[in-house]
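Researcher: Next sequence.
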Amino acid sequence: MLNLFALFHLNLAFSSIEEEQRCEVVAKCYVPLLDLAERHGPIGIEATAYTLKAISACDPGWISRLKTLVAAGKVEFIGSGYAQMIGPLAPAGMVAANLRLGHAAYDEMLGVRPRLGLVNEQAYSGGLVGAYLDAGYEALLVDWDNVANHHPDWRAGLRYAPQRALGSDGRDIAILWTNTVAFQKLQRLAHDDISLEDYLAFVAQQRGAENRVYCLYASDAEIFGFRPGRYRTEETNQGGTEWDRIFAAFAALAKTDGIRLIAPSAALVAPGEPLRLETAAYPVPVKKQRKYNLTRWAVTGRDDTGINAACQRIYEALKNSNAPDADWRELCRLWASDFRTHITQKRWDGYCRDLAAMEARLGTAPSASLPDVEGESITDRFIDIATPMVRARLDRRRGLAIQSAGFAPDFVPLIGGVPHGTFDDITLQADWYTGDCVFEAPGDPKVTDLEWAITKIAHGQDGAVTVQAEIATPQGPIVKRLVFHAGEPRIDFDLEFRWAHWGRGSLRLGHITLLPQAFDEGSLAYSTTNGGAAETFALTEQAVEHGAPVSFLVSATCALGMTEGWLEFGDSRHTVRVEVDRQAAPLIGLLNHRHAGGKLFCQLMLSALELDDTRKPAPYREGPRRFRFSIVAR
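Model: Next structure:
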């Protein structure tokens, strides 16, 4: 028996839908969806609480009808939180608030607490498992295609049965697989791109000798009978006939021998042993094509970095006060994914006003510009630093790049520069630095701070040393301050980019490079947080290149959220911890690791900007950009 289920994702905050179009979407997309459930259910319907409230403002009767269909077993309601916020990019406390407020609204509006959860944008991390369990969810829906692509050892039959996902806190949760090809097939049928016969033949191919579970659909409802207008290549809108084709497909499937249409949770029968879905190379699986990765909502869009920093500042203010739920709901809305992709100009302008208003009310404006340091001018190329906790050498010819740095008690150099010719691998035949900045834009020369730095040095009374420099670049000056602490093994970076324009490209900072001779690859690993409990990934025999481009249009493959502001990497003897000031800029991590010719290469880049199809530069706030991070030995 082939057991089929489908769920439709509803999102009235969709990036390219203007607010005045929402009632049209309800009439043309959501009303026919309830007709489908009534005639051919059970089906799954998923929506944020924000979308339910927006639907109710257009058509209160729609909510009443949905509630009736849920009670009749024609619809299974699937939860996702108050707003469509990307879990692996938000602090754990924010993820918990979004899920809590979502459940409260679901109870109030529908009288249900959903068993199944759809992780927003299907951006999954092992750290989220505990968050959803604590919120009361029993199972999650996860994309099969991208996860399985990074587990070639998995047997193919796993895709046709529920499984369990192992979370980073040791707990596990049941999962149902969704399928990218399947939902695209239904879309093509609805848009008259393939025939009903072709569609039914595709579904029939999923049958096997044993009982199987297969997801027919797990995507947007707004593309049937309506067009958001996001892409020039969108199919011509054929109105209600698109829903007619979907109705015909469900009716035909219901009459087909060996096929049964079921509610999504009915597929949760004897899920298998817990699987770890994420890998060191692919730590945050996301839905659909490779262009959909974590950078899409973190450091692209109009000004993802700027607005995410503002949301982080508001979060810090709310969590340290007895803030009302209304403030938390507003922050959930402001952190939603659709403001970070193809948002229209009109909605972007309104969003910036709302975000700035909340910042003004809570007093969370960003920190002031980096002041000049009073100190001695340096003219030598190399600067040797010695504090009770840090020994380092800086290269003034290379923009204060760290040539080597060691930390108390043994001061063994752990990070620094790896010179050209160290590796036999031609792809690694370059000079590798620690502490430098690189901006790359399509068709333009690379811009770096690897130039002579006008430098001053100051010695604190406590033994700390501060070095500050200004480096000229074609984009404008970069001011760089490094503080070498005396009371702990720590180096602070405070960077200010006094650039007039931020274009389409990637900006990567830090480039913290492990010195190959200082680390043992047999015990090398990295740990960080992606929206929940800490996650650890072994690097032994792993090839990792998060910052590799997907195409000319998409500059990175995946990323690490670093949602509590830290990442550690190291072996059984030494650990290097990188800490990011997320209120200045919530930089994300891109790890590059491999073993080349018997030598270790491992480097962490902190990304402030990446390129993809959503990038359309428009600053949330004008003026210089400031980035703050630290390197700490543990």
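Model: The radius of gyration is 26 Å. The chain has 13 helices and 30 strands.
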